[in-house]
Queue: 2 jobs
Job 1
Amino acid sequence: MSKTITLMRRELTGYFATPVAYVFLVIFLLLSGILTCYMGNFYENGQADLQAMFTFHPWLYLFLIPAISMRLWAEERKSGTIELLMTLPVSLGQAVAAKFLAAWVFSGIALFLTFPFWITVNFLGDPDNGVIVASYVGSFLMAGGYLAIGSCVSAATKNQVIAFVIAVAISFLFVLAGYPAVLNFFKPWVGQSVVEGIGSLSFLTHFYSITTGVIDLRDLVFFASLIGCFLFANATLVELKKAD
Amino acid sequence: MIEIQNLTKRFGLFTAVDNISFQVGKGTVLGFLGPNGAGKSTTMKMITGFLTPTAGKARVCGHDVQEEPIAAKEKMGYLPEGAPLYPDMTPRSFLTFVADLRSVPGDRKARIAEVVAKVNLESVLDVHIETLSKGYKRRVGLAQAMLHDPAVLILDEPTDGLDPNQKHEVRTLIRSMAQDKVVVLSTHILEEVEALCTRTIIISGGKLVVDCTPAELAAKSRYHNAVSLTVPADQRERVEKGLGGLNRVANVEWAALTGSNGSPSARVCVTAFPRSGASIAAEVGARARDERWEVDEMRVEPGRLDEVFRTLTGAAKVGAN
């Protein structure tokens, strides 16, 4: 456990050792603000809630989270430091978990920094803070889902650009899984039950159900098992590809 | 402390390491020699548990590297080829990170300071690693490998890219640590093997070709016990004839010498090769005295490692074509 924390701390300080962290945080908050105020009509709605902000999170994450995750393994493999990491007395599971957790904590920091919106709605009106807390939890979980996908893809290539693009593509499938764009693609090939199964993998469906203020066990299980599956695949890929 | 049994690694159809077995005990500095791509690094990567062998076993301090990877890795320090490091860290933060992961006992700061002093890193402790020179990076890599005072040190080309002073320092360092450890290092610098190693393994085409001491290796050279004389060029034929007349001399060769400024010198080097490695120095000396050759220098050759190396790894044949 303490080794996982040591690894995680190194990874997290790594973000802040370069301008990457600051660029990311600034862009995330800027885009978050613009989308919420202009496209989400935060003020015009006349409602004291953060719906305008959370609606855009799946789309914001779609492009920004792969930017965090793309370096996780691709960089280690490119620079050869993976050889150093994998010959230290740490298990593969610890390394995968530590990298994922570091990225997750970092995305949590970004999410936390949107708190001025929360203060604003509390200042302007009387929002249902329970719903807002649930939405934050849902958003954080969803960020974990995107990160697990991105981390897994990052282990499959040495090239960070490829890791980014593929992660965006796979995440896009998950975002829209419940929508005709994706379902119609699969319909001719597979049976109805499979199509329904794919439909239930939608990030949007699960996330929006949480943002109504109800943290349903099914949504929690969905994100947790998604993260688990992709991290398992991540570990397998690292084991297979580390020496390439 | 290291036991390698029938270790084999295939990448697709290519066999990088082919059925290698050897054992190494305490106090040994083992030099891995071989041409580029011979399988030295691949073997080391399997010993350190980075690569999974296709077949065979590697045991370090009694721990099977595949079955008890953590226990085996705790006993080892490893400098990978090219000394990869995290560029955005400083040597101090990097060494602290490694010390924490390796659960170095006692006062970690003191231990880090001790190792840092050994490899002369004090002046760059708080500089980002990406800005360090190659020599400093290599030293950070070495410091990282020896931080937990491991029983087994695996060093992949520890002196590659260092200047002669740094090479000397690293060799002194390795020698000073060797008594109670096993050091396995790979190199293609032959003088390093002579200067440092107590045992040599030559790998070529993934196969173990030779396993012996550097002296035994040199004895395989046709130059072993040959006697070289430096004489004036105009005496060359006389000397050749005189040496050729000796009973135990198999054949005589000569080579022109160049002066310090690169111009041909008035002297040549005549070498007499003995039959079956016999010692002929006394006879050659006596003949030189009797025939009054003007000998500037007389040298008994211990054997030339580069020549043995080329013969054993097949490069000599390629060169002859």
Note: Residues 2-241 of chain A form one domain.
Job 2
Amino acid sequence: MPQYRQFQYKAYQPVMSPYWYFDRWPYLKFMLREMSSIFVGWFAVVILLQLNALVSGPTAYANFQHWMATPPVFIVNILSFVFICFHAITWFMLVPRVVARQVLQRPSPDVLSAAPNFGIWLVASVVVALFALRVI
Amino acid sequence: MATLNRSNRPLPWMVFGVGGFLVAFFFPVHIFIYGIALPLGWLPTPSYRSTLELVHYPITRIYLGILLVMAFWHAAYRLRDTVCDAFAMRQVDTIVAAACFAFALAGSIATIVALWAVP
């Protein structure tokens, strides 16, 4: 029977600040990218409201257009544009991280792997704009 | 005999991934046109009739349906983690997840109803 007190292991309990994402810029960048989801939800609702106004008639659609031009809504839309472009760029730049790629047995540059996404983004934007503005 | 527990995580992750691509490709141009350029008068505003005509095309309705449903689920999947991480609420993850996915479900139903209601 030992006369000394046996060493007691203490469970490791990491201490993490609730606001850990302010500690370093990459953490904050991660959190800002995640926050783009708020603006995705917002603008999905806006498109639904636009659709509803369109179905309701010319007066309702004119009211919707006036509402879109009010300062609070306009500012949220600007923020949405910035955050969703940030989402798009970071999303497209993930491709080189998840796809095994090589050209002539050498790893291809990140930009080359991500480039097709940016090309598709440009073409998709032009096509949607031409339809939305009723050019075609 | 050991029971093989297969995670159902890949299914919502696939919806999140597809939604992420669709949002990245198509949302910026929607926001730019309807949220910025038209309110500022940078572009000529198409008439009500021509915009309604656009929504009459089945391809437009299919496009909007897929885009919006996927966007709602993408946003919900990411919003759940954002709320839990930003406000240290991981211990109530189930409630946050339920609220976010209920929002996505409501948005999806509203999208289908709105597209169905187009005359």
Note: The CA atoms of residues 68 and 111 of chain B lie 7 Å apart.
